[in-house]
Design brief:
single chain, elongated, 6-stranded mixed beta sheet
Amino acid sequence: MSAWQPAPATPVDLALRVTGYLRPLLTGVWVADKRPTEADAAASGRPYPLSVVTVRRDGGPCDGLFDRPRFGVNVWAPRRMDAFNLASQVTRLILGWPATLTPDAPVLTTCSYVPSLVPDDTPPHFYATFEATFRVS
């Protein structure tokens, strides 16, 4: 007889949750799961954004109780200092997200790779990785 194992749960739609959390907090910044194209900007009725934040799930385990995604965040802005400041702001927001106690918030977040400059990219680009723990049903 084998030990009881919880049934696997459906992973959370991480990009949807993170972008939904960040978008209202980062006014004037394009927050999505991919960089916009000129057509995306035109369809939104706005000019191509100066600052962009993208989120992508990069793996992580999901069991019967928790989903623990690892995810990457890319940040672009017109100048290097602007990109660094935006990346720092995004990091603070993600690390503080559990304290909001909203239904979609994780119970824990950690930064596993602090925002770092991606060399030779124009406009300036920073990349960071995070891990989160979400309760799943």
